[in-house]
């Protein structure tokens, strides 16, 4: 049986994105080509909101105005953030250097 096609990642590491439904913003620090979190995490999403697993999922350093956290979000729920405002998250300086044109540059020691 052939595996379903996998969508190509629309966003790159360092891109600033916004969640379509919940409005929080974040900077991408890792990309999974398909869902790679726990089944328990996946099942905790209400069924009517649960995204398909065969799409890229992004690890974000996120901020919602009330606090900073790490988020795991499907590609279908993200849009490019066009505010040109940096994201406030305490882990950003250790992982990225410089912010320009709506993107962060990954520090050389984190590239692979």
Structural account:
- GO terms for molecular function: DNA binding.
- Pfam families: YccV-like (PF08755).
- It comes from Allosphingosinicella flava.
- The mean pLDDT is 92.
- Strands 4-3-2-1-5 form a five-stranded antiparallel β-sheet, with no helix packed on it.
- The chain is built from two helices and seven strands.
- Helix content is 8%, strand content 34%.
- The longest helix is centred in the middle third of the chain and has 5 residues, at 39-43.
- The chain has helices at 39-43, 92-95, and strands at 16-19, 25-32, 57-63, 68-74, 78-80, 96-100, 103-106.
- The protein is mainly β.
- It has one domain: SH3 type barrels (Roll), CATH 2.30.30.
- The relative contact order is 0.25.
Principal-axis shape: globular
**First-residue to last-residue Cα separation:** 33 Å
Strand content: 25-35%
Write down the secondary-structure element order.
Answer: EEHEEEHEE
CATH topology category name: SH3 type barrels
Helix content: under 10%
> What is the rounded Rg?
14 Å
Assigned CATH class = Mainly Beta
Largest sheet geometry: 5 strands, antiparallel
At CATH's second level, what is the architecture?
Roll
The tally of strands reads: 7
SS field, number of helical segments: 2
Mean pLDDT: 92
Weakly predicted, low-confidence segments: none
What structural class do helix, strand and pairing data support? mainly beta
Task: Provide the domain count.
Answer: 1
Q: How are the strands ordered across the major sheet?
A: 4-3-2-1-5
Oligomeric state: single chain
